[in-house]
Amino acid sequence: PEHPIGYYNNHRVMIVGSTGNWQAIIGLPLAARPGTHKLTVKVGNNSSVYNFEVAAKQYQESHITLTDERKVKPLPMDMERINREIRLIQGAKATWSEAAAPSLLLTQPVAGVYSSSFGLRRFFNKQTGEYFFNGNTIFIDHGQGLLTMYCHLQKIAVHPGQVIAAGQIIGNVGQTGRVTAAHLHWSVILNESMVDPELFIARDLAQQ
Q1: Which of 4, 115, 126, 189 is the most buried (most CB within 10 A)?
Q2: Dihedral angle sign, alpha carbons of residues 65, 69, 73, 78
Q3: Could you write out the DSSP letters of every residue in the chain?
């Protein structure tokens, strides 16, 4: 039987399972509004639309003061770099590999405490900032629209196109980019949307 192909907001989504028991794994962007959303599924020449409900959720806020105003209000000379970085990140997030369904159970990338949770809204010097200066960054493609992103690294130990094994060292935690201290900013991306990494970590692994 032909494997279904799913789309949400015109982005390909992961579908796992087998005939009679297919399941779509959809990443919802933080900007998704509560209410009814649509999943389009195509099998051969046939297309079906499935409705699903999204509930409202409130996330925390954090206010940070940076002494380097340039990291908050980029200079005109910075904008070319910023726009180039945005295009690169968007291109990486749109990666889709026709691989077998990847494991949805991920291992916490480094030992340590969580400094902030997913969805936290940060205000830098009383302003918002959602781009600019991720520092040294690695994207790993797990297949079928599932990617992980590692930011602010001090050192990158892999190269583009390299196949990575689970548990392999890919770099060193650092404080490159817009940071106040050394830490790893770890993101999980699903169908081009940033999603909560804790959904993919087993509780016993996260507590080690």
Answers
A1: 189
A2: negative
A3: -PPPEEEETTEEEEEES-TT--EEE-PPPTTPPSEEEEEEEEETTEEEEEEEEE------EEEE--S-GGGTS--GGGHHHHHHHHHHHHHHHT----PSPPPS-B--SSSS--SS-TTPEEEETTEE--SS---EEEEEEEETTEEEEEEEEEEE---TT----TT---EEEB--SS-SS-B-EEEEEETTEEE-GGGGB-HHHHT-
- Is the model's pTM score more than 0.90? no
- Token pair recorded at residue 43: 């099998």
